[in-house]
## 1
Amino acid sequence: MTTSTRGTGQIPAVLVLEDGRTFRGRAYGAVGATFGEAVFSTGMTGYQETLTDPSYHRQVVVMTAPHVGNTGVNDEDPESGRIWVAGYVVRDPARIPSNWRSRRTLDEELERQGVVGICGIDTRALTRHLRERGAMRVGIFSGDAVTDEAAMLARVQEAPEMKGADLSAEVATKETYVVPAIGEKRFTVAAVDLGIKGMTPHRMAERGIEVHVLPATATLDDVYAVNPDGVFFSNGPGDPATADHPVSVMRGVLERGTPLFGICFGNQILGRALGFGTYKLKYGHRGINQPVQDRTTGKVEVTAHNHGFAVDAPLDGPADTPYGRVEVSHVCLNDNVVEGLQLLDRPAFSVQYHPEAAAGPHDAAYLFDRFVSLMEGQRA
Ligand SMILES: NC(=O)CC[C@H](N)C(=O)O
């Protein structure tokens, strides 16, 4: 067992928001300076999955759960090969992790990967501020990086904004790789990696799908070169308004009528491919406890979310698009934000939330079965 001293030590750290509000605490993880968009996650658990979700690239994540790190860090739960968050904010880090899978403390892991964090600040006050004012740029400064407040604020205000950020290529695989089907292979899927989480191909593999994960820059020819039964568009960081390339690839898939499924960024890309707009939410949805209603069945699912943008599609009845009629299939019950799109005349659908549930409840796992049914239907 390892214990960590940094989070409880005396290295001072300061969190500076772009509107000038500051919080003073202690260094957690690496010491230095980092910048990003301040967002909060309401997940009580699943911090390893959060930290390693590529969709958090360039975001500084504030945990609303006050006590983080209890189960340490294991080698099984990461959703990708590294931590992607730009910075990490915790009220009260666990000093002694306790779990049979734990290999090291969260503090050590953040330091090992050079992720600057802060602890010992009032994360409730910070979250309320972000709820009232909206997600905004932030800097965390610790050790020698702490200077006078005006200078730190100037650096925060120079950092790039999330609106207009084109980030998929920075996180996606550069080379195609294959995730083999578990058990008998039934289908081949081309998955366009815009920042894919490891659990997503795994959920497909569990259903007899061989998944070819392609770079974000893949062309329509690259997609069809794997002779797919279905095409998948993944989650990913950044502003969907910048995703012109995947939007054009997706239109090619819709034209051919190949079964199509999208998650999160993939849902926003489907929205754009159909001609809808996307917009930035005030502070977004992040956590593993968000209520979503399936409007076809009326059933409510508790779901995992991580999105700061949303699709602007009409909630009342099917809309006509160049690819036929489209319905908003799912909505978030907290704020009526569009959480899913279903084409009525083509085998294509998407959700804004995370049925792969890493971390999170498994209520929405049926969506992977729905994708399989579309591929079965196409074959029949
Ligand atoms: N998890 C995701 O795919 C996020 C999509 C997009 N970057 C957003 O913030 O809305």
## 2
Amino acid sequence: MGAILEIKHVSKFFGGLAANADVSFEMAEGMIMGLIGPNGAGKTTLFNCITGYYPPSRGEVLFKGMRMNGLEPNRVCRLGMARTWQKVRPLAKMSVLDNVMVGALCRTNSLTIAREMALEQLRVVRMESKADFLAGGLPIGERKKLEVARVLATKPELLLLDEVMGGLNPAESEEIIQLILDIRKRGVTQMVIEHDMKAIMRISDRIVVLNSGEKLAEGSPEEIVTNQAVIDAYLGSEH
Ligand SMILES: Nc1ncnc2c1ncn2[C@@H]1O[C@H](COP(=O)(O)OP(=O)(O)OP(=O)(O)O)[C@@H](O)[C@H]1O
């Protein structure tokens, strides 16, 4: 299988700060890539560069061989790439179903079809019984699942998940882990930012570690947990 995503020498500067510094790696189709590193390492910035939200200062991002630099989010979505946001902000005064329909409308102009697509994704995240609830009233665990349903409704080939387990209890995190593994079975490639090391080790095929904007290491979960530079910079000896 070929690379679905190629990140080539990507740097992103904010004034004098290199939030990403010469980061390169590739993702094969169908894999789950974990993206880890200390706070401020540049993980979310890299998501922003990949999804076209920020143009990289240097380097390029190729998705299915296409250059993504500076593309509008709507176009990125139609090409088959979707992301979640760390701080989930559903359209609070709209129903759960309508929130997911907003995602589906990136693929169709028909409200009837969008409704069907949205219901299908609500079933995937097991929230079909909440379809008519107001999104603003949901607890955090369900807001996170709603966010996943919304991006799935855009029918992505590549999904970027930014700390979807953040703030969840162990049972809710487990549900998200199963959901991510389910999504992989459907053939969707995923990049996952997560601070929960046990979770990231379980779900990732490969892991990239960022530190101070640079790629510190890349490898299988086993290679990453035994990498001395990663232990020193991030994991600490307890891992
Ligand atoms: N829009 C911006 N303007 C200026 N500096 C920024 C901006 N976005 C991020 N940064 C800085 O870039 C660095 C990397 O931030 P980023 O949010 O990408 O890290 P992160 O690895 O996602 O961190 P966390 O795990 O805390 O979410 C930080 O020093 C941050 O303050």
